[in-house]
């Protein structure tokens, strides 16, 4: 394992139902096996205050919530997790894997809700307190927003954001593609494959340079990647 002078911050983005959680969990397991200290987080959430804000912003009972209110709740939760968890972890040399970060705010609140993009950019800068991902992995499924929502909700009604409608989520998916185009050095797009193992290889390749791995010859066996399928199976059992 390389000697980290400071941590590595990797964020995962994608539309609802893209499989981010499975691949964050599997990558975390691989990095721990390789000797790294790894912290897995989600946005909004990750702190006591953040989890309260998460419950608030995703609660389907609050249909009357204004888009501006929604934006500021997300930014408040982000400011708290950066201050309380992410910055201290990176300073200790931890690898931080986060399910969503500021790209989601651009996608959901700018493209989806139609709020001012420049204001959101400034709000993101303010909330992030100088923290920026070393790499963002965008997982694309090449399926419709409707199919993604069905995967995300497992047939349930879904949270307040998931209930925003197919057109809203189509706009979100387009936003992520646009973000990837304008930030190719940071954002690496991974197209979801027929098996979780095949997708996992692409995810590992997308971050390989951060850990001194050869993206064309990853230091893991073929059998190792089959573990990605087991991760998904465990999550389904918990659901």
Care to describe what's here?
- The protein has 239 residues and is α/β, with parallel strands linked by helices.
- It has a single domain, classed as 3-Layer(aba) Sandwich (Rossmann fold).
- It has a five-stranded parallel beta sheet with strand order 2-3-1-4-5, with helices on both faces.
- Helix 4 runs antiparallel to helix 5.
- It is globular, with a radius of gyration of 17 Å.
- The N and C termini lie far apart (35 Å).
Any descriptors?
alpha/beta; Rossmann fold; 5 strands
The main sheet comes to:
5 strands, parallel
Order of helices and strands: EHEHHEHHEHHEHHH
CATH superfamily: P-loop containing nucleotide triphosphate hydrolases
Total strands: 5
- Enumerate how many helices there are, as a single number: 10
Structural class: alpha/beta
Named CATH architecture: 3-Layer(aba) Sandwich
> What fraction, in percent, of the residue positions are helical?
40-55%
Low-pLDDT runs of 5+ residues are none
Distance between the termini: 35 Å
Number of domains: 1
How is the largest sheet built, in terms of strand order?
Answer: 2-3-1-4-5
Short description:
This protein is of the alpha/beta class.
Topology of helices and strands:
Layout: E1 8-13, H1 20-33, E2 38-42, H2 48-58, H3 67-91, E3 95-99, H4 102-112, H5 117-128, E4 135-140, H6 145-153, H7 166-182, E5 187-191, H8 196-207, H9 222-225, H10 227-238
Parallel strand pairs: 1-3, 1-4, 2-3, 4-5
Helix pairs in contact: 1-8, 1-10, 2-3, 3-5, 4-5, 4-7
